[in-house]
Task: structure prediction
Amino acid sequence: MALFVSMTLGVAGGTASLLPIAIRWLDRRAVVDTPNRRSSHSQPTPRGGGLAIVLPFVLGWLLLAELSDLEKFGLATALAGFAGLGFMDDLGGLGVRLRLGSQIALGFVLAASIISTLPLVIVSAVFVVATVNAFNFMDGINGISGVTLSLAGSVYALQAIYLESANLLVVAAGALGSGVGFLPFNIPVARVFLGDVGSYFSGALLASCAILSVDSGAHMVAAAAPLAIYAADTFFTLTRRIARGDDWSVPHREHVYQQLVDRLDSHVLTSLLVGLATATSGLMGLLAIRGSSTAVAIAGTMIVATAGIYLWLPRLWNVR
Result:
């Protein structure tokens, strides 16, 4: 428990301390998100606040993880690499091929720092890239990323305690601390956005939690459960756009959470609804953590039901 408290408070405190400095620096260099017709905000706001998350987490991980130096530095390098890649996107944007190729390479580094079997490294690297991009797609309103980091990190911390995995506990506590430290600067009124630097880093952080969970003995359903809502929203939205013949890579406002903001006219309420669905899905996944076939079937059914209700909320929530 001391490990969990130290990492959570260290990352939360470090993030909250560095964010005012980051905001001033980003503002002076005009790294600002200017609203357009696809935006969910109305005021120019500095983006790139995720810079303040990276250093506290990496330092905590290197100090507290119970791995060899090579494994610790491998994961830290991959996570910092995702942050650097995202920051280059924040500054000017990268081509799709360069961005995706770099993400795949970093995904391999991250996966190989945790597991050693090549087929599993390949599958895990693809999973990392998918999670990073899903988190980036979903980072579009005030509070949503901080709430998701906090709640998903809390669920992974519960998994770590049950599995007695110190390394999973450190990463989960870092995710929780990142969300807690960032939220006061992003909700209800955003003083700063995570930016691609923060969303890439956060997506890779939660993907690391899932991989460490499986590596520690959890069933894949339990490991993926805290990410199910983001995955469902991203998959549902992209599939629908591709089926219509739209360019999936073009920014839009068709995600379920964006539809909810339009209907509820509230970033706070929408972020809480996404958080509630994420927490429910993650807690249901705990039932399947040891892989009993009955428990996996029950947990899987409940997770799918939770995701289905979330996807239908814009239609069910008739507030107009």
Notes: The chain has one domain: 2-32+44-316. The longest helix spans residues 2-28.
